[in-house]
Amino acid sequence: MKTHKDLIVWQQALNFVTTIYTVTNSYPESEKFGLINQIRRSAVSIPSNIAEGAARNHSKEFIQFLYIALSSASELDTQIRISENLEFLNKIDSKELLEELESISKMIQGLIRSVKNTSN
User: Are 62 and 49 in contact (CB under 8 A)?
Assistant: First the structure.
């Protein structure tokens, strides 16, 4: 691996941030400093932590940041479900977002396994 930019999971997570920003543009203005902010911060945290971890010198540190990215994905999963419950998202949009997020989460888990195996 040359940099975090070479990681497909980082690329997909980065694209997912754009999707999240686009989707949350349609949320009520009253959620600007509430759910919209939380959702966007969680989404941005995923590729950011992958990038920060990849820049570390030790695989143990990289793994730690990957776990933080995975935690942010779990947080975002919850926020998407809350958005659906509040009818800010319809079931189809919510399902598509959750499927894409699950794919990213599985890629992060796979990367964690790979880094662990390489460092042993």
Answer: no
Task: Give Cβ neighbours of residue 44 (< 8 Å, ≥ 6 apart).
Answer: 17
- The two tokens of residue 34 are 């509430």
| pLDDT tens digits, one per residue of 41-62 | 999 999 999 999 999 989 999 9
- What is the value of pTM for the model shown? 0.95
* Position 120 pLDDT exceeds 80: no
Residue 114 pLDDT: 95
What single-letter amino acid sits at 69?
A: A
Please spell the DSSP secondary structure of 17-74, one letter per residue.
HHHHHHHHTTS-GGGTTTHHHHHHHHHHHHHHHHHHHHTSSSHHHHHHHHHHHHHHHH
Domains of the chain are: 4-119 (1.20.1440.60)
Reduced to 3 states (helix: H, G, I; strand: E, B; else coil), residue 103 is helix
